[in-house]
Amino acid sequence: MGRHSIFLDASSEKKLNFILSMEGVSKSELLRKIISFYYEMCSIEHPLDIETIKVYIMLLSKGEHLIVDVAHWDLFMSLSRYFNDAFWEELNKIGREHGEQWRDRVNFVGFLKLLECCNWFSVVKMNEIKYVLISRTENSMDFIIGFLKGVCKGYGIQPRMVKLKGKILVEF
């Protein structure tokens, strides 16, 4: 057990007092909790940055999103060649609704980053107007493009999307 003195700037002091008011514990107890929490976050097998953790919490906490194993996702997507026009129209509509929902919160690239957090693909910035989306599975390419076309309508943009082997080129 050790005794420690720390100096906090005004911003950190304000944050500490806010958390203290929520937790109802002593400063010492709160600092022990914070250290334990941070230790746990650093000790996980695949540590994440705080922004990714915040996105996961935002997406999962309200029950509007699911965690799906990649093998299950790939199985569903392998059946996409059998989907009828009504499916693709509904997917496009859902994409448009997502675009309308998110366009005032993040720009389109920010939305792509959200989908990256959902493991749909990895986003690689080539330059200011060109991005490459590296798909997790080859079977999901048409689904991703169909959804993103709707999202683009919701954003009121028309980037060029080109399907490549395992990748989608998005150019503004």
Question: In words, what does this structure look like?
Answer:
With about 170 residues, the protein is an alpha+beta fold. The chain folds into 2 domains: about 10-45; about 70-170, no CATH class. Helices cover about 55% and strands about 10% of the residues. It has a 4-stranded antiparallel beta sheet with strand order 1-2-4-3, with helices on one face.
Summarize the structure.
The protein is α+β, with helices and mostly antiparallel strands and 172 residues long. The protein folds into two domains: 10-43; 69-171, no CATH class. It contains seven helices and four strands, in the order H-H-H-H-H-H-E-E-H-E-E.
Brief descriptors of the model:
172 residues, 2 domains, 7 helices, 4 strands
